[in-house]
Amino acid sequence: MSIGVMFRELMGGMGVTVSIFFLTLLFSLPLGLVVAFLRMSRLKPVSLITGIYISIMRGTPLMLQLIVIYFSPYYVFHVKISSSFRFVAVIIAFALNYAAYFAEIYRSGIQSVPRGQYEAAHVLGYDRRQTFARIILPQVLKRVLPPITNEVITLVKDTSLSFAIATAEMFTIAKQIAAKEASIMPLMAAGLFYYIFNLVVAWACERLEKHYSYYRI
After folding, report:
1. For the purposes of burial, counting CB atoms within 10 Å of the CB of 123, is it exposed (0-12), middle (13-18) or buried (19 or more)?
2. Residue 108: exposure state from Cβ atoms within 10 A (0-12, 13-18, ≥19)
3. Is residue 25 part of a domain?
4. Residue 216, domain member (yes or no)
5. What pLDDT digit, counting tens, does each position of 5-52 carry?
6. Which of 65, 142, 181, 209 has the fewest other C-beta atoms within 10 Å?
């Protein structure tokens, strides 16, 4: 197989990898914020249930979660699973998993803001929504960006786990070509893609950190 043909085949998998990455962030980032608020709820049952969800998502392998979510409709509800559900199951599993991690990052960021900030906002006449949106959230964003960057970089590499339910992302296709051609080149090409993708993600996150820096000139 020529290099050109190999890269054309890998390009299809690259599109799936990029889709998994962006769709996971699209759903998990806002969901994580909702989970963080539920985790901090004064209602003990809500906080407890949310804590259990976070514990399960963070304490079990993502690959296992992928398999459970993909096969649950069949084994629990006896619904026939179509091949098109594979990609949907991947997005659901990734979003639920990363939302749990983002929730803890958001929670630590929100709780790190001194109580005096809330009291000062109350004195100035801000309601709770205005206080969070105009005073607390900008500070939280600055504090949580570094750990979120680490999770986003991990997500780039974790997309390869979708092979567990036969989703044809880049790493899966690279392994298939490598096995067929008895060559390590497809795997090296996939590794190079992940590395470049991570460089771009790290650069974008660094730009965001500088944007929210209090000390930028």
Report:
1. exposed
2. middle
3. yes
4. no
5. 677 778 878 888 899 999 999 999 999 999 999 999 989 999 999 999
6. 181
Task: Determine, yes or no, domain membership for 143.
Answer: yes
**Per the structure, how many domains does the chain have?**
1
Which residue type does 50 have? Answer: T
**Domain range enclosing 117:** 3-211
Instruction: Give residue 184's pLDDT.
Output: 85
Residue from 95, 101, 105 nearest 140 by CA: 105
3-state helix, strand, coil split of the chain in percent (to 5) is 85, 0, 15
Structure token pair of residue 8: 């054309």
Distance, in Å, from the CA atom of 74 to the CA atom of 14, rounded to the nearest integer, reads 29
Identify the helix (H) or strand (E) that includes residue 154.
Answer: helix 137-158
pLDDT (tens digit, 9 = 90+) per residue, 176-199? 888 888 888 888 888 888 899 889
Q: What is the pLDDT of residue 214?
A: 57
CATH number at residue 191: 1.10.3720.10
Residue whose entry in the numeric block shows the structure tokens 């690959």: 63
Structure tokens at 202: 């790290």
Q: Residue 183 is encoded by which pair of tokens?
A: 């060559």
Query: Six-digit token pair at 126?
Result: 């801000």
CB count within 10 Å of CB 165 equals 19
The answer to whether residue 217 is domain-embedded is: no
The tally of CA atoms less than 13 A away on the side-chain side of residue 42 is 0
pLDDT digits (tens, 9 = 90+) for 138-157: 888 888 888 999 999 999 98
